[in-house]
Design a protein that fits this description.
Order of helices and strands: EEHHHHHHHHHHHEEHHH
Strand order of the largest sheet: 1-2
Oligomer: single chain
Largest sheet: 2 strands, antiparallel
Radius of gyration: 21 Å
Shape: globular
Structural class: mainly alpha
Strand content: under 5%
Length: about 350
């Protein structure tokens, strides 16, 4: 099962890991910005500034989870079947939250009433916080293991997924993404809202350090192996470096270290999981590994060549998109846009 010296199931395990890392880093700050609305959005203009920081990129960021799910389905169909059937309710809640959030971005500005906008703002907040929490719960359960039968079917209940360890994992991703989003706001705005975001990132960052440290230590002592500890150490050091850079007002450095922290933390979880993909907590023999969950060598070979050709193009397009929308957004930007729109409507009459 080799391609140019690579063991294909192992290669695709880490490709799936890389796709989820990309999703958590990119959609993570989207979730964070959404969750900061009640803390940073003092009026409608502030809230529009916050939403506009992610407006051009949020849907592009979400495609990473679609690609990750598709890669998981094609490369590890047994893992996909067990995960999506066993975690069906949790994943359905995530999907509904993402739909509500996406709808809110598109419809919030369709009517001028404050009550109309407030309802959609609430949907953005909930639609950001729920996935941020449940993704952590899901990955903590994957690392910890869940009860499976001999056919690799999940035999627990929804509430079995809400163990203390899993809830701590959910709280960790919630706080990581919240802080990541606050730092992103400092990177994309100017003036008073940027200063408030800097202070908010400092406060939430202190909580994040405590929660993330507890989760990584619990994971390490219970499941840590291989590269887990070095990656966890890099994640912890990067988080601290991000918060120190935020205190100095170096938002670009802070955002970069936050991205590194999230990326290495997710990589550490995959390192703790390897070579399993879905451990069975009731009987190790019922668990799924890279080998018994993988697709055929032919399928993995075709997928490898496809990824080699198209993944660089996708990355180049996303990088270009971020470059185009790299400018900061201010209250004046929103107010000038409103004046331009009013002038256009008046001219049309």
């Amino acid at each position: 099962m080799d391609l140019a010296g690579f063991d294909l199931p192992t290669l695709w395990f880490w490709i799936v890991a890389a796709l989820f890392i990309g999703y958590f880093v990119l959609d993570g700050f989207d979730f964070g910005v959404g969750m900061t609305l009640p803390f940073l959005g003092r009026d409608d203009v502030d809230r529009r500034v916050l939403i506009n920081t992610i407006g051009p990129v949020w849907d592009l960021n979400e495609t990473w989870v679609i690609v990750a799910g598709a890669a998981l389905f094609a490369a590890f169909p047994e893992w996909y079947a067990t995960l999506f059937s066993g975690f069906y309710l949790a994943l359905l809640v995530i999907l509904l939250a993402l739909i509500a959030r996406g709808v809110s971005f598109e419809y919030r500005h369709q009517r001028p009433e404050a009550s109309w906008k407030a309802r959609f703002d609430l949907m953005i907040i909930i639609g950001s916080a729920v996935p941020a929490m449940l993704w952590g719960v899901a990955f903590a359960n994957i690392v910890q293991g869940v009860p499976l039968d001999a056919e690799h079917n999940y035999i627990g209940t929804f509430f079995d997924l809400l163990s203390p360890y899993a809830l701590l994992g959910g709280l960790t991703t919630l706080m990581l993404f919240f802080t990541h989003g606050a730092v992103f706001v400092t990177l994309k705005t100017a003036g008073e809202i940027r200063e408030r975001a800097q202070r908010l990132a400092a406060r939430s960052g202190a909580i994040t350090v405590v929660v993330a440290a507890a989760f990584l230590l619990w994971t390490g002592f219970a499941h840590g192996a291989g590269w887990f500890w070095p990656l966890a150490a890099v994640a912890a050091a990067s988080l601290v470096a991000a918060l120190l850079a935020n205190l100095r007002g170096a938002e670009g450095v802070s955002f970069t270290f936050m991205a590194v922290s999230i990326a290495t933390a997710v990589a550490a979880l995959f390192a703790a999981l390897f070579p399993d993909v879905m451990p069975a907590s009731n009987d190790a023999a019922n668990g799924l590994t890279i080998e018994n969950a993988a697709s055929s060598p032919y399928t993995l070979t075709v997928m490898s060549w496809t990824a080699l050709i198209f993944l660089p193009l996708i990355l180049a397009y996303q990088g270009w998109t971020y470059w185009v929308f790299r400018k900061r957004i201010t209250r004046q930007t929103i107010e000038n846009a409103e004046l331009d729109q009013s002038a256009a409507e008046e001219a049309a009459r």
